[in-house]
Design a protein that fits this description.
By secondary structure, the protein is mainly α. It has 5 helices and 3 strands, in the order H-H-E-H-H-E-E-H. It has a 3-stranded antiparallel β-sheet.
Length: about 120
Amino acid sequence: MSYEPDWNVLTATCPSRTSLTRIANKWTAMIVIVLGKGRTRFRDLRTSVEGISGKVLTETLRDLERDGLVSRHVFAEVPPRVEYELTDLGRTLHTPLSAIGQWAEAHIAEVLEARERYDCQR
């Protein structure tokens, strides 16, 4: 019988914190949302996620691949073609991150109003 530890993200030494840090990254969320639509080329990802640099996109994709959330497919063509897609594990992350993105869009007016009220009181 194998022992499964009780992971607790609130415990300082829990390795799940590294996953939470990766998931909470704004670029990760946006990349996962785009890849939720299907396999995507690097350049199309960069176009879809406005404001991300090529370097940050590359680093984030590598981190997601290392964590088993994204798979990378290289095609032996000239020029080389590289596509990315969510793994089965990555697809489990798509729904909650999409929901957070939808929440942000739905409530940004309220957030902006709250910020303005706060700033005026200071």
